[in-house]
Specification:
Blueprint lengths: L6 E12 L2 H7 L1 H21 L3 E6 L2 E6 L2 H19 L10 E13 L2 E3 L1 H12 L5 E4 H7 L6 E10 L2 E9 L16 H24 L22 E4 L3 E2 L8 H14 L6 E3 L14 H8 L3 E10 L2 E10 L4 E11 L3 H20 L4 H4 L5 H14 L4 H17 L3 H17 L6 H18 L4 H12 L3 H14 L6 H11 L3 H14 L6 H12 L3 H17 L3 H14 L3 H14 L5 H7 L6 H15 L1
Parallel strand pairs: 4-6, 9-11, 9-12, 10-12
Antiparallel strand pairs: 1-3, 1-4, 2-3, 4-5, 6-8, 7-8, 12-13, 13-14
Helix pairs in contact: 1-2, 2-3, 7-9, 11-12, 11-13, 12-13, 13-14, 13-15, 14-15, 15-16, 15-17, 16-17, 17-18, 18-19, 19-20, 20-21, 21-22, 21-24
Amino acid sequence: MTSEDLNRKIAIIFAADIAEYSVKMADNEQAAMQALNSIREIVDPLIAMHKGRIFHTAGDSVMAEFKSPTEAVICAVDIQKAIIKRNKTVDTPKQMNLRIGINMGDVIEQDGNLFGEGVNIAARLEAKASNDGILISKNVFELVNSRTSFSFINLGTQQVKKTRFQAYQVDFGLGKPKISKSKSKLSLPIILASITALMVITVSVSIFFLQRPLRDFQPISEQNLTFQIPDTPSITVAPFQNLVPDDQTAYLEKSIVDNIISVLNGSPELFVVTSNTVQIDKQKDPEIREIAEAAGVRYVLTGNYQVIGQNIRITAHLNDALKGVNLWSGKFDSSLDELFSVLDDISNTVFEEAHVEVAGKNRSEMAFFKTNTDYTEYLECLDTFQYYTPDKNRQAEVCVTELSKTAQASAPVRALLGWIYWQRVFIGISTNPAEDITFARKIADEMLIKIDTGEPFVLHGWLDFLEGKYDSVSRNALKAIEIDPANASIIPTAGSLLRRVARYEEAKAAFVQTMRINPNPPLFVPLEFGFTLTALGEYDEAKRVLKATLPRVTREGQAAGVLMDLAVVNSLEGNLKKAKQVCAEAKAQSANFNLDSQLALEGGTVDKAFLAKFSDAARQACL
């Protein structure tokens, strides 16, 4: 069977196993079998109730597939609670403790069974779980964190054999340690002294945390920058320090850095400055801010390594030098015999974290792609689509068609094709709008089944907007935000929809959330945010947002529109002199400045009363 014949897909895998079952079998085989059967009478119906499918059982283990990570986690909690409740009603020999692991990943389906790395990691999460515990992978955590009432404990990077993964423990309220009561009695003076000491410690700790700065290191000083920080998320990789200096291992510094840079360089979302262009690197142990200032970047990846015998440990840190905070840290252990494997592991992990933490990409979307190459090709298609021109629309369709032939991830690529057909209608190049809308809706409906994100809803919302179904626009936009409250792509797209149907407060909340989770949002975000604030009459905040955008749009030759918006805000405030001055600057920025054309860009809204008010203010300022 060739790779093309394999039925690959992304699945939510649930793995469960009874702790120390072989020991119980050795002690009393009949009692263990009876207990196992009673456990299965709890597990199997709950999996079915939560729309899961059991695809494999072996002895005391159960493997199930879910379409929704949220349903999988809720199901796991329900199962553990039911078994814990059962154990309280039976004798100790009949008590059973379940361990559960949940992962989302690439699997191969054959005759109803599932195989592959996605299944293996779920099994390894289960093996790492405590009795009555539930461990989930990082990509599952990203999807369920804001959708359930449970707490999650980050256990960091785990390793089983050659597989590394980050694990989170689900805290569902039953895992608290028992506190035994002491039989000895304490005298009143001892009790009072203990309380006094505790109060002193509490006050001291409180003062420490209140006075502690909200940053991890000294941030950069922008006047010390060798180059201006680019608008595209910019990053450099500093030389990794050798903690156990040895001439025989010195070569690893270059190997680690070069490997990471080669992977990051493939992304169209990142501006990568190679370390050999940064003169500060020659200093011994330079500060993060010094590296960033010398390179003219916002983000710096630092790290170290140590070789002891035939083993190597590599530690990496992703830092935001502008804010002075650490965004991510990872630790990687390996034997030198597996050096190439661990170097690839580091580079791929850094690639993912940089796109999530720096470029504002969605981790669950990245999980659909088997390789970084497939994902970067998808990003190139997406970048082409975002030009919103007839030529780029056609190029994006060709790009997606070619990628569909090779990429393992069909869902995001297929979804992008739906957006391309929507865009045809939106920018007025469709020869058959009704047919293109129907095709795009078909894809959105497919995505509702295949992916558990807000994208199908927001695509339906934009199609509703084209057809004038404004009530549906709001419902779909708000549903998308409810499902994906931390998705830096979905939230602003839904916010733009809400702005266009005059749901300004919800739109404002969406834009605020976007700018909080994505330090480098798409250009339309601050522009739409400014319009939303203006509609709400929050003129000071609108001016702040628009002025903060000016350096970026000036570099991209798009300052005229922002200046016109600023002129409108001044005009609405009654400061006509300032408004005319700002609009004169807008005209100076563009020799072809045309007020009607600029106003047409703001015209996509159902709020005709405010649009008329906005247009009148613009004409007062610019005519």
